[in-house]
Amino acid sequence: MKTRSFFSALIFAATASAILANDAESSDSPELKRARDTYDLHCGLCHMADGSGAGRMSPPIEGSALVAGDPAPLIDLLLHGPDAVLPKPRKKYTSVMLPYRHLTDEQLADVVTYMRTQLIDPPAGAVTPVQIAERRKK
To answer: Are 99 and 78 within 8 A, CB to CB?
Structure first.
């Protein structure tokens, strides 16, 4: 019962956070709105709208060297899942992230760019759909 209450509260908090973030930034460009919406839909529930993560459930995006560095490993992680990309002796989280290869190159570029430009400080560079397509072929 406590677990269900915890997850209900977590889902409520993530949803409220995403709604508030979207309302607060209504003057953003259509591209940024699209990227944020894609992030919120596919990543925000576990990693939170602000990228802070969810304790033992999922890691934070903010402060992540993986997000801030070369985009290729992050793209590979999204395409193939963490178990295929990250070293085996690593911190474990209770949620399991599955691959997102079903997303289009544009959607993945939006998510990676959003994480790298909006959720880390200092911001890293944008990623293009062409970069996603190149990594998808490998």
So the answer is: yes
> Is 1.10.760.10 the CATH classification of the domain at 2-137?
yes
Cα angle for residues 44, 50, 53 (degrees, 5° grid): 65
What pLDDT shows up at residue 9? 47
Return d(Cα 36, Cα 78) in angstroms, integer.
16
Distances in whole angstroms, Cα of residue 99 to Cα of each of 41, 67, 82, 102:
15, 16, 8, 8
pLDDT tens digits along 76-134: 999 999 999 999 898 999 999 999 999 999 999 999 999 999 999 999 999 999 999 99
- The token duo for 86 is 């990250």
- Do 23 and 92 form a contact (C-beta atoms < 8 A)? no
DSSP 40: I
